[in-house]
Amino acid sequence: MIGDAHTSKRLRKAAIVGAIALFMLAIGIVAGYFISRSLGYHLASRQQAAERNKHAESAAAAAGFRRGAGDADIAKLRQWPEPSSPPALQLLQDPAGPDGQRFMQGDVLQPPIWKPQEAGQNLIDVTNKLYKGTGIQFKLQEVRSDVKAHPYLLLSTLDDWQSCTGNPSQEAAGFPCLQETTRFPEDTAKFPDVSALAEKHVVNVFIGGSQTSLFCDTTAADKVCSTLYFGYTGSIGPWFTKASSTWREGLSEENWIVMTWDFFAPEVANSKRFWNGGAVTLAHELGHYLGVMHTHEGATACEGEGLTKADAVPDTPVNRQVEQWAAENNLAAALAGWCSDFRNGKSPQPKALLDYNSCKADGTTDNVFNLMSYLPNACNMLLSPNQVARLQWAVATFRPQMMAAYAA
Protein backbone atom coordinates (compact mmCIF):
# COMPACT_ATOMS: atom_id res chain seq x y z
CA MET A 1 0.00 0.00 0.00
CA ILE A 2 1.07 3.58 -0.59
CA GLY A 3 2.08 4.94 2.77
CA ASP A 4 3.72 1.70 3.86
CA ALA A 5 7.12 3.02 2.84
CA HIS A 6 8.16 3.24 6.46
CA THR A 7 7.66 -0.49 6.81
CA SER A 8 10.40 -2.91 5.87
CA LYS A 9 8.43 -6.15 5.97
CA ARG A 10 11.10 -8.61 5.03
CA LEU A 11 9.94 -12.03 6.13
CA ARG A 12 12.73 -14.47 5.46
CA LYS A 13 13.25 -17.47 7.72
CA ALA A 14 16.75 -18.42 8.85
CA ALA A 15 18.38 -21.03 11.05
CA ILE A 16 20.77 -18.75 12.90
CA VAL A 17 22.02 -18.42 16.45
CA GLY A 18 20.35 -15.66 18.43
CA ALA A 19 20.03 -14.49 22.00
CA ILE A 20 17.06 -13.38 24.04
CA ALA A 21 17.48 -9.65 24.30
CA LEU A 22 16.10 -6.42 22.92
CA PHE A 23 18.40 -3.48 22.40
CA MET A 24 17.63 0.06 21.64
CA LEU A 25 20.22 1.73 19.49
CA ALA A 26 20.07 5.50 19.53
CA ILE A 27 22.05 7.06 16.74
CA GLY A 28 23.53 10.53 16.44
CA ILE A 29 23.85 12.12 13.01
CA VAL A 30 26.95 13.80 11.57
CA ALA A 31 28.22 14.88 8.16
CA GLY A 32 30.04 12.71 5.61
CA TYR A 33 30.88 11.76 2.04
CA PHE A 34 29.58 8.92 -0.12
CA ILE A 35 31.78 6.41 -1.92
CA SER A 36 29.67 3.66 -3.50
CA ARG A 37 29.30 1.34 -6.42
CA SER A 38 27.84 3.26 -9.33
CA LEU A 39 25.42 1.96 -11.95
CA GLY A 40 28.37 1.95 -14.33
CA TYR A 41 29.76 -0.90 -12.22
CA HIS A 42 32.75 0.79 -10.68
CA LEU A 43 33.71 2.40 -7.41
CA ALA A 44 33.06 6.13 -7.44
CA SER A 45 36.03 8.38 -6.75
CA ARG A 46 35.78 11.34 -4.41
CA GLN A 47 35.49 13.63 -7.42
CA GLN A 48 32.67 11.54 -8.83
CA ALA A 49 30.96 11.51 -5.43
CA ALA A 50 31.22 15.31 -5.27
CA GLU A 51 29.77 15.62 -8.76
CA ARG A 52 26.95 13.27 -7.80
CA ASN A 53 26.19 15.38 -4.72
CA LYS A 54 26.21 18.59 -6.75
CA HIS A 55 23.83 16.97 -9.21
CA ALA A 56 21.66 15.76 -6.36
CA GLU A 57 21.30 19.25 -4.96
CA SER A 58 20.38 20.75 -8.33
CA ALA A 59 17.99 17.86 -8.89
CA ALA A 60 16.41 18.59 -5.54
CA ALA A 61 15.73 22.17 -6.57
CA ALA A 62 14.43 21.12 -9.97
CA ALA A 63 12.15 18.47 -8.50
CA GLY A 64 10.80 20.75 -5.81
CA PHE A 65 12.03 18.39 -3.10
CA ARG A 66 13.17 21.17 -0.82
CA ARG A 67 9.89 23.07 -0.52
CA GLY A 68 11.05 25.88 1.74
CA ALA A 69 14.52 24.51 2.45
CA GLY A 70 16.94 26.88 0.75
CA ASP A 71 20.54 26.48 -0.37
CA ALA A 72 21.76 27.71 3.01
CA ASP A 73 19.81 24.96 4.76
CA ILE A 74 21.33 22.29 2.53
CA ALA A 75 24.79 23.76 3.02
CA LYS A 76 24.29 23.65 6.78
CA LEU A 77 23.11 20.06 6.59
CA ARG A 78 26.25 19.06 4.73
CA GLN A 79 28.47 20.68 7.39
CA TRP A 80 27.13 18.97 10.50
CA PRO A 81 29.92 18.14 12.96
CA GLU A 82 29.83 15.17 15.29
CA PRO A 83 26.94 15.58 17.73
CA SER A 84 27.42 16.45 21.37
CA SER A 85 24.60 14.06 22.25
CA PRO A 86 25.68 10.66 20.87
CA PRO A 87 23.56 7.51 20.46
CA ALA A 88 22.83 4.64 22.83
CA LEU A 89 22.11 0.92 22.61
CA GLN A 90 19.50 -0.44 24.99
CA LEU A 91 18.77 -4.09 25.76
CA LEU A 92 15.48 -5.65 26.77
CA GLN A 93 16.03 -9.11 28.23
CA ASP A 94 13.97 -12.17 29.03
CA PRO A 95 15.26 -13.54 32.36
CA ALA A 96 14.56 -17.20 31.60
CA GLY A 97 15.65 -18.48 28.21
CA PRO A 98 16.42 -21.89 26.70
CA ASP A 99 18.82 -23.98 28.80
CA GLY A 100 22.43 -23.89 27.69
CA GLN A 101 22.14 -20.78 25.55
CA ARG A 102 23.12 -18.20 28.14
CA PHE A 103 25.12 -17.87 31.32
CA MET A 104 24.36 -16.18 34.63
CA GLN A 105 25.54 -12.64 35.27
CA GLY A 106 24.17 -11.52 38.60
CA ASP A 107 20.51 -12.48 38.60
CA VAL A 108 20.05 -12.17 34.83
CA LEU A 109 20.85 -14.77 32.18
CA GLN A 110 23.12 -13.47 29.44
CA PRO A 111 24.03 -14.80 25.97
CA PRO A 112 27.19 -16.92 25.91
CA ILE A 113 28.86 -14.52 23.46
CA TRP A 114 27.98 -10.99 24.32
CA LYS A 115 29.76 -8.02 22.74
CA PRO A 116 27.01 -5.47 22.18
CA GLN A 117 29.35 -2.50 21.86
CA GLU A 118 31.31 -4.13 19.05
CA ALA A 119 28.11 -5.31 17.37
CA GLY A 120 26.57 -1.86 17.50
CA GLN A 121 29.74 -0.22 16.25
CA ASN A 122 29.90 -2.53 13.24
CA LEU A 123 26.31 -1.63 12.35
CA ILE A 124 27.22 2.05 12.44
CA ASP A 125 30.56 1.73 10.64
CA VAL A 126 29.07 -0.14 7.67
CA THR A 127 25.98 2.11 7.57
CA ASN A 128 28.26 5.13 7.40
CA LYS A 129 30.04 3.68 4.38
CA LEU A 130 26.68 3.28 2.68
CA TYR A 131 25.71 6.89 3.53
CA LYS A 132 28.95 8.63 2.59
CA GLY A 133 28.27 11.60 0.34
CA THR A 134 24.69 12.07 1.50
CA GLY A 135 25.65 14.74 4.04
CA ILE A 136 24.56 12.37 6.81
CA GLN A 137 26.64 10.10 9.01
CA PHE A 138 25.92 8.34 12.30
CA LYS A 139 27.83 7.98 15.56
CA LEU A 140 27.32 5.36 18.24
CA GLN A 141 27.67 6.69 21.77
CA GLU A 142 26.21 4.29 24.29
CA VAL A 143 25.26 0.65 24.70
CA ARG A 144 22.60 0.04 27.32
CA SER A 145 22.54 -3.60 28.35
CA ASP A 146 22.52 -3.34 32.14
CA VAL A 147 19.01 -4.15 33.36
CA LYS A 148 19.89 -3.01 36.88
CA ALA A 149 20.82 0.44 35.64
CA HIS A 150 17.95 0.43 33.14
CA PRO A 151 15.20 -1.84 34.51
CA TYR A 152 12.82 -1.01 31.66
CA LEU A 153 15.05 -3.19 29.48
CA LEU A 154 13.92 -6.37 31.23
CA LEU A 155 10.99 -8.23 29.66
CA SER A 156 9.08 -10.97 31.46
CA THR A 157 9.03 -13.90 29.03
CA LEU A 158 10.39 -15.19 25.75
CA ASP A 159 6.99 -14.55 24.14
CA ASP A 160 7.14 -10.93 25.29
CA TRP A 161 10.58 -10.58 23.73
CA GLN A 162 9.38 -12.04 20.44
CA SER A 163 6.22 -9.90 20.43
CA CYS A 164 7.85 -6.55 21.27
CA THR A 165 9.10 -6.25 17.69
CA GLY A 166 7.97 -5.39 14.19
CA ASN A 167 5.33 -7.98 13.29
CA PRO A 168 1.79 -7.95 11.82
CA SER A 169 -0.07 -8.36 15.12
CA GLN A 170 1.85 -5.52 16.79
CA GLU A 171 1.43 -3.34 13.71
CA ALA A 172 -2.33 -3.91 13.67
CA ALA A 173 -2.53 -2.99 17.37
CA GLY A 174 -0.40 0.14 16.96
CA PHE A 175 2.77 -1.32 18.50
CA PRO A 176 1.67 -1.05 22.15
CA CYS A 177 4.84 -2.65 23.54
CA LEU A 178 7.22 -0.37 21.68
CA GLN A 179 5.00 2.64 22.35
CA GLU A 180 5.15 1.94 26.08
CA THR A 181 8.89 1.39 26.00
CA THR A 182 9.53 4.70 24.22
CA ARG A 183 7.84 6.54 27.10
CA PHE A 184 9.22 4.48 30.03
CA PRO A 185 10.33 5.25 32.70
CA GLU A 186 8.56 8.54 33.35
CA ASP A 187 10.45 9.78 36.41
CA THR A 188 14.16 9.11 36.45
CA ALA A 189 16.78 11.82 36.45
CA LYS A 190 19.65 9.42 37.05
CA PHE A 191 19.04 7.18 34.03
CA PRO A 192 17.74 9.12 31.01
CA ASP A 193 14.85 7.30 29.39
CA VAL A 194 14.09 6.67 25.76
CA SER A 195 11.92 9.76 25.50
CA ALA A 196 14.77 11.97 26.67
CA LEU A 197 17.00 10.54 23.96
CA ALA A 198 14.41 11.25 21.28
CA GLU A 199 14.09 14.81 22.50
CA LYS A 200 17.81 15.15 21.84
CA HIS A 201 17.07 14.00 18.27
CA VAL A 202 18.91 10.71 18.36
CA VAL A 203 17.45 7.81 16.40
CA ASN A 204 16.08 5.12 18.74
CA VAL A 205 16.57 1.66 17.25
CA PHE A 206 15.13 -1.31 19.14
CA ILE A 207 16.61 -4.73 18.48
CA GLY A 208 14.83 -7.90 19.54
CA GLY A 209 13.04 -11.05 18.47
CA SER A 210 14.51 -13.92 16.49
CA GLN A 211 13.52 -16.37 13.81
CA THR A 212 16.32 -18.75 14.74
CA SER A 213 15.16 -22.31 15.35
CA LEU A 214 16.67 -22.15 18.85
CA PHE A 215 14.03 -19.65 19.93
CA CYS A 216 11.27 -19.95 17.36
CA ASP A 217 9.31 -22.77 15.78
CA THR A 218 9.12 -21.20 12.34
CA THR A 219 6.93 -24.03 11.02
CA ALA A 220 4.07 -22.95 13.29
CA ALA A 221 1.93 -20.44 11.40
CA ASP A 222 0.47 -19.01 14.60
CA LYS A 223 3.86 -18.13 16.08
CA VAL A 224 4.60 -14.39 16.18
CA CYS A 225 8.29 -15.12 15.69
CA SER A 226 7.62 -16.71 12.30
CA THR A 227 6.19 -13.40 11.02
CA LEU A 228 8.85 -10.96 12.24
CA TYR A 229 9.80 -8.07 9.97
CA PHE A 230 13.54 -7.72 9.41
CA GLY A 231 13.08 -4.03 10.13
CA TYR A 232 10.30 -1.51 10.64
CA THR A 233 10.40 2.27 10.87
CA GLY A 234 7.90 3.81 13.28
CA SER A 235 8.39 7.36 12.05
CA ILE A 236 5.62 8.20 9.59
CA GLY A 237 6.35 11.84 8.97
CA PRO A 238 5.02 14.24 6.32
CA TRP A 239 7.48 12.91 3.75
CA PHE A 240 5.21 9.83 3.39
CA THR A 241 2.09 9.70 1.25
CA LYS A 242 -0.02 8.78 4.27
CA ALA A 243 1.65 10.53 7.18
CA SER A 244 0.72 10.25 10.84
CA SER A 245 -1.40 13.22 11.91
CA THR A 246 0.33 13.23 15.32
CA TRP A 247 3.93 13.03 14.11
CA ARG A 248 6.32 15.70 15.27
CA GLU A 249 10.05 15.91 15.51
CA GLY A 250 11.40 14.79 18.88
CA LEU A 251 8.24 12.90 19.90
CA SER A 252 9.62 9.60 21.16
CA GLU A 253 6.68 7.34 20.34
CA GLU A 254 6.62 8.65 16.73
CA ASN A 255 10.36 8.38 16.03
CA TRP A 256 11.89 4.90 16.32
CA ILE A 257 13.15 1.90 14.38
CA VAL A 258 13.01 -1.78 15.28
CA MET A 259 15.18 -4.61 13.90
CA THR A 260 15.37 -8.31 14.72
CA TRP A 261 18.11 -9.69 16.91
CA ASP A 262 19.22 -11.86 14.00
CA PHE A 263 20.43 -8.74 12.18
CA PHE A 264 22.33 -7.51 15.24
CA ALA A 265 24.21 -10.70 16.15
CA PRO A 266 27.88 -10.38 15.07
CA GLU A 267 28.13 -14.08 14.32
CA VAL A 268 25.18 -13.95 11.94
CA ALA A 269 23.85 -11.21 9.64
CA ASN A 270 25.86 -8.43 11.31
CA SER A 271 29.09 -9.70 9.75
CA LYS A 272 31.11 -9.69 6.53
CA ARG A 273 30.23 -13.33 6.02
CA PHE A 274 26.67 -12.29 5.21
CA TRP A 275 27.63 -9.03 3.50
CA ASN A 276 26.77 -7.11 6.68
CA GLY A 277 23.06 -7.70 6.30
CA GLY A 278 22.44 -6.08 9.68
CA ALA A 279 23.89 -2.77 8.56
CA VAL A 280 22.08 -3.06 5.23
CA THR A 281 18.80 -3.40 7.14
CA LEU A 282 19.65 -0.47 9.42
CA ALA A 283 20.68 1.71 6.46
CA HIS A 284 17.40 0.83 4.70
CA GLU A 285 15.29 1.74 7.74
CA LEU A 286 17.25 4.96 8.29
CA GLY A 287 16.38 5.86 4.72
CA HIS A 288 12.69 5.62 5.63
CA TYR A 289 13.26 7.48 8.90
CA LEU A 290 14.94 10.37 7.12
CA GLY A 291 12.80 10.66 4.02
CA VAL A 292 12.98 8.06 1.22
CA MET A 293 10.62 5.24 0.31
CA HIS A 294 10.89 1.83 -1.33
CA THR A 295 11.72 1.73 -5.02
CA HIS A 296 8.72 -0.61 -5.30
CA GLU A 297 6.49 1.65 -3.22
CA GLY A 298 2.74 1.35 -3.50
CA ALA A 299 0.25 -1.04 -5.04
CA THR A 300 1.00 0.42 -8.49
CA ALA A 301 4.79 0.09 -8.44
CA CYS A 302 4.97 -0.14 -12.24
CA GLU A 303 3.03 3.04 -12.94
CA GLY A 304 4.01 6.69 -13.18
CA GLU A 305 7.22 8.53 -14.01
CA GLY A 306 9.25 11.29 -12.40
CA LEU A 307 7.54 12.64 -9.30
CA THR A 308 4.34 10.74 -10.09
CA LYS A 309 6.11 7.46 -9.33
CA ALA A 310 5.15 5.89 -6.03
CA ASP A 311 8.51 6.70 -4.42
CA ALA A 312 8.46 10.27 -5.84
CA VAL A 313 12.09 9.98 -7.00
CA PRO A 314 12.69 10.61 -10.71
CA ASP A 315 15.90 8.59 -11.18
CA THR A 316 14.82 5.24 -9.70
CA PRO A 317 13.20 3.19 -12.48
CA VAL A 318 9.82 1.66 -11.70
CA ASN A 319 10.11 -1.89 -10.45
CA ARG A 320 8.24 -4.50 -8.49
CA GLN A 321 9.66 -5.88 -5.26
CA VAL A 322 12.93 -7.08 -6.78
CA GLU A 323 13.79 -10.01 -4.53
CA GLN A 324 10.28 -11.46 -4.69
CA TRP A 325 9.98 -10.98 -8.45
CA ALA A 326 13.41 -12.53 -9.00
CA ALA A 327 12.44 -15.56 -6.90
CA GLU A 328 9.20 -15.98 -8.85
CA ASN A 329 11.19 -15.96 -12.09
CA ASN A 330 14.06 -18.19 -10.91
CA LEU A 331 16.50 -15.28 -11.03
CA ALA A 332 17.20 -14.73 -7.32
CA ALA A 333 20.29 -16.93 -7.06
CA ALA A 334 21.77 -15.43 -10.21
CA LEU A 335 21.36 -11.89 -8.83
CA ALA A 336 22.96 -12.78 -5.50
CA GLY A 337 25.80 -14.47 -7.36
CA TRP A 338 26.33 -11.50 -9.69
CA CYS A 339 26.60 -9.07 -6.77
CA SER A 340 28.85 -11.38 -4.74
CA ASP A 341 31.19 -11.86 -7.70
CA PHE A 342 31.31 -8.12 -8.35
CA ARG A 343 32.11 -7.27 -4.75
CA ASN A 344 34.74 -10.00 -4.62
CA GLY A 345 36.63 -8.30 -7.44
CA LYS A 346 35.42 -10.41 -10.33
CA SER A 347 33.90 -9.03 -13.54
CA PRO A 348 30.40 -10.42 -14.01
CA GLN A 349 28.73 -9.51 -17.29
CA PRO A 350 26.60 -6.33 -17.04
CA LYS A 351 24.28 -7.67 -19.74
CA ALA A 352 23.14 -10.36 -17.28
CA LEU A 353 21.32 -7.62 -15.37
CA LEU A 354 19.08 -6.90 -18.35
CA ASP A 355 16.96 -9.84 -17.23
CA TYR A 356 15.88 -7.80 -14.19
CA ASN A 357 13.11 -5.64 -15.64
CA SER A 358 10.08 -6.54 -13.56
CA CYS A 359 7.87 -3.78 -15.00
CA LYS A 360 8.92 -4.43 -18.61
CA ALA A 361 9.86 -0.79 -19.00
CA ASP A 362 11.77 0.13 -22.12
CA GLY A 363 15.42 1.05 -21.65
CA THR A 364 15.60 0.34 -17.92
CA THR A 365 16.55 -2.35 -15.47
CA ASP A 366 15.35 -2.75 -11.91
CA ASN A 367 17.06 -0.99 -9.02
CA VAL A 368 19.25 -4.00 -8.32
CA PHE A 369 21.88 -2.09 -6.29
CA ASN A 370 19.61 0.31 -4.39
CA LEU A 371 19.40 0.43 -0.60
CA MET A 372 15.68 1.12 -0.76
CA SER A 373 14.92 -2.03 -2.77
CA TYR A 374 14.53 -5.53 -1.32
CA LEU A 375 17.68 -7.31 -2.48
CA PRO A 376 20.24 -9.94 -1.53
CA ASN A 377 22.54 -8.33 1.04
CA ALA A 378 25.50 -8.27 -1.37
CA CYS A 379 23.55 -6.12 -3.84
CA ASN A 380 22.80 -3.21 -1.48
CA MET A 381 25.39 -0.63 -2.51
CA LEU A 382 23.97 2.83 -3.18
CA LEU A 383 21.36 5.55 -3.06
CA SER A 384 20.57 7.39 -6.29
CA PRO A 385 21.37 11.11 -6.69
CA ASN A 386 17.70 12.04 -6.43
CA GLN A 387 17.28 9.86 -3.34
CA VAL A 388 20.15 11.81 -1.77
CA ALA A 389 18.39 15.02 -2.78
CA ARG A 390 15.16 13.82 -1.20
CA LEU A 391 16.96 12.89 2.03
CA GLN A 392 18.50 16.35 2.23
CA TRP A 393 15.18 18.01 1.49
CA ALA A 394 13.29 15.91 4.05
CA VAL A 395 15.80 16.45 6.85
CA ALA A 396 16.05 20.19 6.18
CA THR A 397 12.28 20.54 5.95
CA PHE A 398 10.96 18.21 8.64
CA ARG A 399 13.83 17.80 11.09
CA PRO A 400 15.10 21.39 11.56
CA GLN A 401 15.69 20.83 15.28
CA MET A 402 18.00 17.94 14.46
CA MET A 403 19.86 20.15 12.02
CA ALA A 404 20.11 22.92 14.60
CA ALA A 405 21.29 20.53 17.32
CA TYR A 406 24.14 19.19 15.19
CA ALA A 407 25.03 22.24 13.10
CA ALA A 408 28.40 23.91 13.38
Keywords for this entry:
12 helices, alpha+beta, 11% strand, eight-stranded mixed β-sheet, 408 residues, globular, disordered N terminus
Describe the protein in words.
The protein has 408 residues and is an alpha+beta fold. It is built from 12 helices and 10 strands. The strands form 2 sheets. Strands 1, 2, 3, 6, 7, 8, 9 and 10 form an 8-stranded mixed beta sheet that branches. α1 crosses α11 and α3 packs across α8. The longest helix has 18 residues, at 46-63. The chain is globular, with a radius of gyration of 20 Å. Mean pLDDT is 73; it is low at 1-22, 31-88 and 94-110.
SSE topology sketch:
Blueprint: E1 7-8, E2 21-30, H1 46-63, H2 71-77, E3 88-93, E4 103-105, E5 108-110, H3 116-131, E6 137-140, E7 142-144, H4 158-163, H5 168-173, H6 176-182, H7 194-199, E8 203-207, E9 231-233, E10 256-259, H8 277-290, H9 322-328, H10 332-343, H11 385-398, H12 400-406
Parallel strand pairs: 3-7, 8-10
Antiparallel strand pairs: 1-9, 2-3, 2-6, 2-8, 4-5, 9-10
Helix pairs in contact: 1-11, 3-8
Radius of gyration: 20 Å
Shape: globular
Mean pLDDT: 73
User: Uncertain runs with pLDDT below 50, 5 residues or more?
Assistant: 1-22, 31-88, 94-110
End-to-end Cα distance: 39 Å
Number of strands: 10
Helix content: 25-40%
| H-E string | EEHHEEEHEEHHHHEEEHHHHH
Number of DSSP helical runs: 12
Structural class: alpha+beta
Compose a concise summary of this entry.
With 408 residues, this protein is an alpha+beta fold. The chain has helices at 46-63, 71-77, 116-131, 158-163, 168-173, 176-182, 194-199, 277-290, 322-328, 332-343, 385-398, 400-406, and strands at residues 7-8, 21-30, 88-93, 103-105, 108-110, 137-140, 142-144, 203-207, 231-233, 256-259.
